[in-house]
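Worked example 2:
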Amino acid sequence: MKKNHILKGVVWGILCLLCSTSVISNIDGRLSASEKPGADTLYPHQIFDESSVICGYVTNDATGLVIANVDVDLDWEDFQGNSGWDTTFTNSAGFYLFNTVPVDFYLHFYSEDFFHEGTSRLTVYQNQVFWYNISLVPVPDQTVRIQGFITDNSSTAPINDASINLHWADDEGHYWSNYTFTNSSGYYSLWSIPGRTHIYVQCENYFSFYSDYFFTQNNSLIWFNISLVPYPAVSVVVCGYITDADIGDPIPDAY
């Protein structure tokens, strides 16, 4: 696989030299000061063709193997202030490519069973091939089961169709979530990744519930029962008039 990557890189370099195109091969896509065009070559009013390229390989951080069908999103803004969003997918070799005008941009990478990754703000200039290779971290197996009952804090009656949202995070900026709903008995059950977790519960006519972060262990079963506080009955009416402070006339449709 490494030989294939090297061969493709050489081919790209030859093509770009033939086309008088500068190649940026940094793995993180950053330009050195000497590689950036001078300010006199960039004009805000200039209209560019799609002579620039953003491309790279997406691999599995755990195995080093390429990942096919990764959703790669390009969030861009050109030098005239126009902005947009383009999408492509990696091919069977894990390779993606965008043809573009010179732009400031962000890249976002999505693939099932992997954590989402995104870049900081980057820039590709005219006639440049901007390489950005990235490795995606696999989502760990969901070996933690969290279950419980959601009840009314006042009556202790089960609450049907309450939404339970689980959020997981690690120290490297990766996030993961899962959700479910209670049944007619107020029961819910969902799977989670081991680690730092918190739960958010909401239901119509009840105050929402937010748990603190808690830590779960691999292959554990956790009971988490929650009582939701109902909204109080409406027993107070607030009313009045809105008028013009200078002439005293009523103001219709004030919000």
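The helical segments are 2-18. The domain at 144-228 is CATH 2.60.40.1120 (Immunoglobulin-like).
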